[in-house]
Structures
1.
Amino acid sequence: MAFLLAETNFALTGLIVLPLMVGMCLVLLPWYRSVKAAKFFGLGFSLLIFLYGLLLILPIRTIGSIIESRSWFTLANISVNYVLVLDGLNLWLIQLTTLLFPLALLASWRNIKEKEPIFFGLFLILESSILGALLAQDLLLFYIFWEVMLIPMFFLIGIWGGSERKYAASKFILYTLAGSLVWLLSLIFLANLAGSFNPTLLSLAAKNQSIHIQQMLFLSFVLAFAIKVPLFPFHTWLPDAHVQAPTAGSAILAGILLKLGGYGLLRFAIPMFPEIALSMSRALSILSVIAILYGAWVAFVQEDMKKLVAYSSVSHMGFVILGIFSFTLIGLQGSMLQMLNHGVSTSALFFLVGMIYDRAHTRNIADFSGIALRLPILTTLFFIVVLSSIGLPLTNGFIGEFLILNGTFTSTLQWGPILAMVASLGVVLSAAYLLWMFKRIFWGSYDNPAAKGNIYLAKDLTWREGLVLLPLIILIFWMGIHPQTFMIDSELIMKSIVTQIIPSIPISSGVNP
Amino acid sequence: MNSAILIPLIPLLGFLLNGLIGHRLPRFIVNLIACSTIATSFLLSCIWFIRVLESPENRIDLFFGQWFQVGNLNIPLGFVLDALSSVMLLVITGIGLLIHIYSVGYMHHEKGTSRYFAYLNLFVFFMTLLVLSSSLPLLFVGWEGVGLCSYLLIGYYYQTDEAPRAGLKAFLYNRVGDVGVLIGMMTLFAVFKTLTLSDLLKQIPQLGVETHFGLITLATLMLFIGCTGKSAQIPLYLWLPDAMAGPTPVSALIHAATMVTSGVYLICRLAPLFSLTPITLNLIAWIGVATALFAATMALFQRDIKKVLAYSTVSQLGFMFLGLGVSGFSAGFFHVFTHAWFKALLFLGAGSVILALHHEQDLFEMGGLRKKLPITFFTMLIGALCLMGFPGTSGFASKDEILYLAYLHSPALWSFGVLAALCTAFYITRLMVLVFAGKPRHLERFSHAHESPQWMTVPLILLSLGSLLSVVIGWPESFGGHNTIATWLASAFTFGQNVQPEAHSSDHTLALQLAFLSTTLSLISAGVAWRLYSGGLIWEKRFEQKYSRTYQMIREKYFVDQGVKALIVTPFFVMGKVFWKLGDVIVIDGIGVNLPGAITRLIGDLGSHLQTGRLRNYTLFSMLGLLGLLILLFAGRA
């Protein structure tokens, strides 16, 4: 059945259209009489989409990739094509997306109390646009999905967000738009030369330009993606957006949206400008190391749990960029895995923080003390997720960081070993801020009078909440114990990226005994 | 599949059982699960120990499959069973079993001990994994895992203030060390292109000794930083004394007998590599002896019985590193072996005393317990004699061999080592006298005191037998012995390669003279301590008055903790605030983001003033516009 699906010419389109249709139904139809039915409708279909996505793993394992290509329209001699590709690079990011959406909906089952059908609908539209961006191979198509993603997220933050939601929503949308507009300009510039939005043709067109222009073009790509990641110093939209967004929004934002930055670099920016990418790799690696340390350092002093997790994302995503610009197979594969890792553990952290918030209506760390006494299951799960986030071996976080650091250390970058050594301090810092937070919230005396939130925490995890977390906990261990499942598919593509970059390097091994 | 993989997996099963459903099971089942899993592991370890003995090269390699593989980074799931790992396994599971049994008695009065036993089993899982691993990343799994269990068990009494703080401190200090191990692994991978022990050590004979500071020195130094974290050496020793906030059996198992010696184990495992770098070895020797002396002085005037033993552990670990640093790998490892017995014994004895006095840990509140706790007293006495290196005991054999090798390396090392040994004899005698001799200083606690139940005394007796007998296998050749363990370990240190990492000693007379000298001095020191403390606290009070500053300094551990707080922790926190409030909120967000936003809004506001709604203004604007266009048009033509 899986293969039949793969052979049709609409398997990938279906993956985009299905959530869009369901989302539209939820937003447009009058559901106010049967809110519950609307929720089940949304959740049910999101689960179906997850199964649909799973069906695509086997074909990819056997035939390598699925491509859908149609010509779309021609505009002033530029042909625009509708090209979707599913291959080893986006396979697991798509699985992560389709998994996190049902979990996010399940997590919002009770804590969203107004306009639920629209909330669920916007989520499915968001899923559709994310899947579209992950699948699109034509750059205009990619750009369209890239910008469309912002709209449902804007409403999710702006309508269901916290008290500062308007500021956060407009900051989120303006910030990301500003970055991608420059990128759009260079896309149009290149498309005019190439007569197409096909990345290979665009890349050929770029090669005829002077180095200076190529650099500007590459930087415009990087800017758009770096804001999404977010790379230091383009990260300040993230804490605000996270703190104000509803739990499910934060989980999706951290779990998937940020990954699109790293994915964009791997899919487009680097293969299109290999020489430029190499020449700028040191600067970008240094920025990533700064992000790792700076994000961790600032996370350390946060008083709001969500803000702490948001800053930890800055730090963890810094590892992803560091691994990418090591341009070694080990580093690139590590980045791939780290993106999945971060998606799993950070969304789990946001869900958990949300569960505490649902009970106590505060996220202030100082409002809690010793709650392990009353919530043993929540405590245990929280602790497992914390371990995964600080990269303890046998959980997912370790393999990613280990590969990235190893790749950076052995990379041909001149400062590889030093960057790797400095970056590995992030491992201490992440343990410091997360375990310190854990200690303050879950350990200590339960009867501490300063802990105002404690009295609301009477009930341990419900079944529904357990169901939200269970898949993520399983993944944490699965990815830590048998990471190969999630890495073999991308190996070939990463190898081709490395070989694309390597010929342009004079052959001198960076480190030798 | 073969049964060696069960050595770690059965304790893991115990952890899962007790961790998931233990709180619903009756107490005796929880205890049964915990002890029987370790007992099974112990039996299997014995079987494999014999198999290793019988195998041709005293070495068995096992391969279970691939953990992960990316490019040329290939990490197998495999075990190495040789002299080193199989002895270590016996120590972990054997002493571990005794401590599990002891815990049944010790934790009897506490509620919900399933969590405690689950953590303890998990610890054995990680520790055996650490010891058995055939590759460094897998070893690192155990390495970080034991740190995790240590953290959880230190923080076991999580509702208190002290335990969580101590747990966090332990984890973070260990993490700093772990980063060293990570960097060490990266460097080794860059040099050797592999992280599998056998493939890595195979390449050693082709490399020369690195006399300058090169990559191998970097790698070994970084690994050693990891060891200073896990094995509580200068500069990362500060967590171990605080770790005494955990239950006492935990202190015995993790913070005395096994986990803290994993740093020594790691260096022994990579002995051929370390012997390539005289720079690192020299540093290890000096750090070791400095820690041995420094920690021994801090143990002198501690009031908490467990703190004395904690500093003693730090100091004894220093001796082990001293041994490694002067290339006495088997001497260092033999001290791990003997120390595991007598220090576990001393800690469990202390636990028995503490329990008898209803959780009183203050030495000043004890006294005269010899009659009340006879078994505890006699077994602890054996431990104390071993610790101070009484002639003929195991401590004597292992410590004086190390000191002798240190003397061959540099007499200065030897003299510091002997000074540390003097302090050792002093503080352990002080401890014994204050606990068991003299008159009781707290009558009420004294009157309720009684000997511990058999769950606890039987392990004590077995441990004291172990302490006494462990000397048999390692009586040094320099003292005219046969030293079975050293000859046997030699195969493990060379790892089947044609290298000779071990220092050798042949001058028996010199060895005996040195041992005689240091032992005599130690015994004198012990005698002095006995004399001074036989009158109770009078002497110490007088000393405190006379040299209050020195006394305070030693008592406050030379103010190192306060220094770290003032110089590292607080500035770190303040800098974080600065980055956040200044970097993020003012510079990036204020100037970079909100300022352009504000300017845009300002321009918009100004522009909106043009929208007056009056027709004559609009006519004026369009007239002006028309005029401008015409001027441009004509100017262009002219």
2.
Amino acid sequence: MKETRLGEFEEVILLLVGILGEQAYAFRIAEEFESQTGRAVSIGATHSTLDRLENKGFLKSEMGSSTPERGGRRKRIFTITALGKRVLKESRDFKMALWGQYPAFAGKLNYEM
Amino acid sequence: MARNKIHPPRLAQRLLRTFLRDDLSDEVLGDLEEKFYLTATRRSQFKAQLNYWYQVFHYLRPFAIRKSKPTYSNHFAMYQSYFKIGWRNLLKNKGYSVINIGGLAVGMTIAILIGLWVYHELSFNKYHKNYDRIAQVMKGGTREGTLFSGGLSLPYPLIDVLKTSYAANFKHIVEALQPREYILSSGETKISRTGQFLGAGLPEMLSLEMLRGNWNCLQDPHSILLSASAAKALYGDADPTGKVLKINTEMDVKVTGVYRDLPHNTKFHDVKFFAPWELALLHNAWIKDQPWDNHFLYIYCEIAPNTSFESVSKMIVEAEMKVIDKMENLSELIAQRPRIQLLPMSDWHLRADFSHFPNYGIPDSGPVRFVILVATIGCFVLLLACINFMNLSTARSEKRAREVGIRKAMGSFRKQLVSQFFSESYLVVIFAFILAVTFSFIALPWFNSLADKELIMPWTYHWFWGCSLGFILITGLVAGSYPALYLSSFNPIKVLKGTYRTGRSASILRKVLVVAQFTVSVTLIISTIIVYNQIVFAKNRPVGYTQVGLIMVQKKSNDFYGKTDELRNELKKTGVVEEISESGGPVTNVWSNNDGFEWAGKDPNLKHQFGTLGVSTEYGKTVGWQFVEGRDFSQEFVSDSSGIVINETAAKDMGLEHPVGEIIHWKNRWWNVDKDYKIIGVVKDMVMKSPYEATLPTIFLLNRQHSYINIKIAPGVDTKTALEQMEKVFRKLIPSAPFEYQFADQQYALKFAKEERIGKLASTFGTLAVLISCLGLFGLASFVAEQRTKEIGIRKVVGATVIDLWQMLSKDFILLVLLSCLVASPIAYYSLSKWLENYAYRTEISCWIFGIVCLCAVIITLLTVSFQTIKAAMMNPVKSLKSE
């Protein structure tokens, strides 16, 4: 059976793929992760997660164009699948529901999307 | 731009490639490079490098690592199939297989035999544990302005000097007499064996394997150390220790030790017993009184630890000169400025054969040259066989282009085809090797008699199997590489469509190989014929005396002396002896060379050496020498005691027009003479030394010191009865010695043994080389005929006759063979002229030899090729054109 739960790191990466759009390939994602979170991450770790997400069916990929700074090598561009989007949404909804049940914060937060 | 200068660390890249999945390499390397340049511009180059490594290690994750390929679980089945197909291929073309395997096996057999022989020669004397520390002391000096060395006979006082002043350089140093035959008698058993008197340190020095007694067994002056074979001949299987025996009926000794016989490839192999030096001194008191200029002693030594031959040689070089420098009466010797040197054991056999020039001491590198020559021939024959093998394999494999095409179309990988072809070639090589080992085992006794050796198959030697394995690997690889690598690269479409043609390069290579092959064969054949010519030429040389019925008896012990007249009378009485005489040496050698001869008109600067032989009056009648001038010695003339007979060469060298009657003055210390001699006769040159060398100028004179008895059997008397009669006489008069004799003609024949051996070896190898080459040619011819079947068919239809076709097919081969004759003739001429230069009495190399050999080569080629070409030419064109 396919694993469908999403870890924290996985969720962030999935979101970053969505954010970067056409530029979502391992190196850029790792860079973006670093600049967004301030946490260091290796390309290998990012790539490994991307690969896992793809296997779970949350992402799909295809080879993109090449640029000279890559020594003329092509890059693999990742895009979120419908399943990926649904899982992200479910994750958010689930957390919202949890937030809603937390009395100290209930009603104080405004999270219009 | 900076980017051109810096580059991601290549080592890290290489590391990444070794483990990264292939399909990821593009994107990952790209990502890392982008990261690298970014870091390099934002931070520093070093940081970028470091980061690259960091990133690479972070790719060591399960998802990114290349999966190992699925392994074939049925390797065995695959190889089994290779060999099965190979086997079927061999069976399918039985003719080729037989030629191929047989030719290679013959070549390998020769290589094995020659390899054994060469190993035997190179391992000479290595039996002794101290092989690399043992040497013989030799002497050199200056003679007539040129340096010479190699004198193994040394003056007696030298041993004392070396033992006292230079003792620290030697672990052992032993004096020795030259080995010679002695009679050993124990009770009624008498045997004659070669033995040597030498110092007590020798058994330990030679690390003799003692069966009884120990290495100190020569300490007592009255002891003897027997070889196992001599002990067995004397005492059978009984324990000989403590038994008493006599050497030459005059020296009483007790057996104190028995050693295992030394193997054939040792210098001391012929010596069958050792006796103490002290004993020799007791019975030959004169030895101790010999001055510096009498050379007769051998000295062997083992150098001390922590020294080398060079350092010891340097220490002792002046040993003699320092002592004799101030002495009187030695001016001649001092003028030579003697230099004492060491001759290491490793040089004894291969580089120091002084037997040819005992008087001049010129080291002869002949043996080692002979070893190199034979090894080269062996390599060439093996090469011929390998060339054959390659030629046939490649020729055959072209026929298999289709097979390759189909295999490829069916999905064979190239790698599998390569393995297929290699396994086939290895199959053949292994077969040939097994055959070759069998052949060599069978042929070894024959080879031993040919080469005069006692070689055995080294079944248990690692090096033998190692070399064999190496050879199998290399031959299989070389022979299989063409089909394996070239054929497997074919484009299946082209091959199957039939548009493929084998390149010209392949056929040119084949032609070159055929030419090389025949060059070697023709050279060998020409050489063989010239060697035989030389032997026949020397054999036909007039010997100058009559050998038939002439026997020689060496006076081996003192009991022979003083019986001359008695022997003569008794032998004459039997009626089987025509004449009997005595001489100072055998008729087949000259032992004594002397100078000191003066005659009227002699060039005073000339230092002339003459062979000198003391004879008894009847010598001439016994050997049957032939007079050119003058008369023989005679009992009737008392004055003949100062008469001499000289040979023609001596007369010529003296420059005397009418030598008979001329007076020669001879002063010589060793012969103890200083008087005038008159030449009474001149005889035709007798070939006493080597029949290949110029005759030595020789002087015959009457004296009383003789070591040989010469007997001429009466004509018409059967040799066997004559010998029986003579034995009776000798038994009666000299009971202490066994009756041992030599036939003059047999001794003379021995002089040809070495050259005859070379001739036999060369002719055997030459024949085999030709055989192998012809096998190859035969295979190639049939291949060509087969390949051109269609062409021949069409030609026949159009009207070509069988003769035309035969000519067409044979022409190519004849041209190749003629070309190789052209190459071979100068090579053979050059090398054989060099070889002939070794002989003073030599034949001319005549042109007809080359002509005849080339003609024979062409005829043999035609015969070989014709079988196939005529068969092809006779084929019914309907059949050949129909066949597909």
3.
Amino acid sequence: MRVTFTVNGRRHEADDVWEGESLLYVLRERMGLPGSKNACEQGECGSCTVRLDGESVCACLVAAGQVEGRDVVTVEGLADYARQRAEAASAGGTAAESASVSTSAADEQRWAAAPAADGVPLSPVQEAFIDAGAVQCGFCTPGLLVAADELIERNARPSDADIREALSGNLCRCTGYEKILDAVRLAAARTDHAEAPGDGNGPGPHSGHGPAQGEVV
Amino acid sequence: MEFLRPARWEEALAAKAEHPGAVPIAGGTDVMVEINFDQRRPEQLLDLNRVTELHEWETGEEEVALGACVPYTRIIEDLRRELPGLALAAHTVGSPQIRNRGSVGGNLGAASPAGDSHPPLLTAGAEVEAESVRGSRRIPVEDFFTGVKRNALADDELIKRVHIKKASGPQQFSKIGTRNAMVIAVCGFSVALHPESRSVRAAVGSAAPTPFRALAAEDFLGAALEEEGLWDSGGALPPSVTKEFAGLCSAACNPIDDVRGSAAYRRHAVGVMARRTLGWVWDDYRGGAGSGAGRAAGDEGGSRCA
């Protein structure tokens, strides 16, 4: 069957998709987007985490046919997604309203964990993972980045318990998680700082803040 | 394999009537695992994601009519006041990614003895609304589970909604697992106080071929509360009552040894969970001056460790 849906702001089409195929397989094997990792294929590890219409899901458990006409963000489009969200926030709109800029297929496929000279800059979460040393073998990283970015979008000042819960579906067998927690605290603190000035709605920058950046890096 | 994508409920029923072997798929958190691992190759997958009413719920005077595909995340965030026991159980399901997709309808369809939503449905009081082209019927949740991974649905029926009584008193849920996320219950337990009818309901998961209510324990506790006048006095539960309740819950189990735990451990753990959760709901009832509804879930949202 043919499946058509939006990935990272751009319409993609896949042909000859087997009816029992997962979204993860379509992304990796048919669309050339191997950022979402294939490990457990049963929703246990979180390394295939993507956003489906804004929600974090395991791409291995979504049937390809279920995403027809829907909107998917993978780690390849995360930087763009975060940038559009930040721009929309500063313009007072929502990410969805401003999601007109799309990642090109070439950009998606060229994605690497370092800011390419001509590429899209990394998202705050990606930068924080690098700065905090939260990446070792890197296999779990894409799923963690998507899950952590979703947490910070939903909760600008997550507590440690919030972070642990938000990442409870993502397994990492290298780091022991401490640096990952550091990275999420760092990303949240930076995002909060960046959005605090002139933000009349949120609490001021001095009330009940997350950990200072210096503690983390 | 065929992928059927009805846009409306009537089309879904027609498709299920035409293809009784079609496997309904909502969040995919069970079905896709079986397909990924080559354990299942149905002739048809029946995707229910486009049927919008399955993703909606209605809160009435007495009950919540919960669409079969409403994900656990929505129950936790939007229905924990009305359905505190179910919200607590929902919070122990998988991970955020799984809770964004998994649903009570899927849990019932899979009918695993370890389904987390089953004990709180049994203690709250619930009916499964099953429908086919032949008509609609409501199956009391007590009669829904017919065996390990078997339920009362006919081949042409689909679950449309689950009608769950709104809490009139404190409810609790507890679950044993090796960590606080991503575990299939070794065993689970739910208890609900119903002050308006002066009754107590207790249900056990993953300690018998099907989830079940511990009726002897319920009757014993109901009689003991009445006899001691505790519904009115709000007095503390005598330790002997709690102990007997826990023992009856434990004795009602018919568990097996498997990779997650031994039968003996399950029996023991159910007794411990029964004792602790009863303490929690009774404390809540006393503290809430008889109107504990909504407080049971607590603001932290998660289940306390048993």
4.
Amino acid sequence: MTAINFPGEPRRRGTNLEKWGWIYMRASGVVLLVLIFGHLIVNLMVGEGVKAIDFGFVGGKWADPFWQWWDVTMLWLALIHGANGMRTLVNDYTNPGTTQKVLKGALFAAAAVLIVLGTLVVFTFEPCPAGSPADLLPSFCPAV
Amino acid sequence: MPENPAGTLTTPAKPAKQKPGGTLYRGREGMWSWVLHRITGVAIFFFLLVHILDTALVRVSPEAYNAVIGTYQTPIMGLGEVALVGAIVFHAFNGLRIILVDLWAWATRHQKLLFYIVIALWVITMLGFTPRHLINVFSH
């Protein structure tokens, strides 16, 4: 089945990317609410909150694949959600032209670079780097 | 007895007040929820860029990460974190309101009520978060 075409209307072809953007903002938004509220509760509300965060704290979390995937999912969903939201503002407040292209290019580049960087950091993280003082490291690191 | 018998022409006692540019939208709940959604969204986006970079320092050295994360534990930044969490909580709850308004006819009709529910939930959430966070920031 094809969608109804009114007489004289050019046939629309391909995917409606703006529609999928609209759907993405809502679907990712709901997931991000859960992921970010969980992130804030674990990092800011439990125990001594922000005062407890250090290398050992992060190392302890990322020793568990559960928190690695939690944080990587948050990274991808949030950066794409944020960059697409900023694209909406660029569309609203600039006219089509070079400036608009540069701004959208910068948003795309920032999101792409940080997604790659963040994903590599989470999955190549070394919780017990050689030569570091033991009191800075997670408690499970072997004493040297 | 009817005060205005049929056939009597009356003019309204007061002409309806017409504010310049007054519409159902402008200056009302719908506009302010939109404005706040944009402002909080932009603020959260720029924090996110910084936050990914500071977290990436765990890949440099424990000392580098601890030095930067230590600045998040100062009183000034502690207050900034209250503002950040306030922005996130508003954006989250108002985002749910937007989804409901888009998908559910009842919510479209009652979007103003939903805006005040968002504000109420925001106040409750911040009352839960702020004291606990500030005690952590200022007392350890």
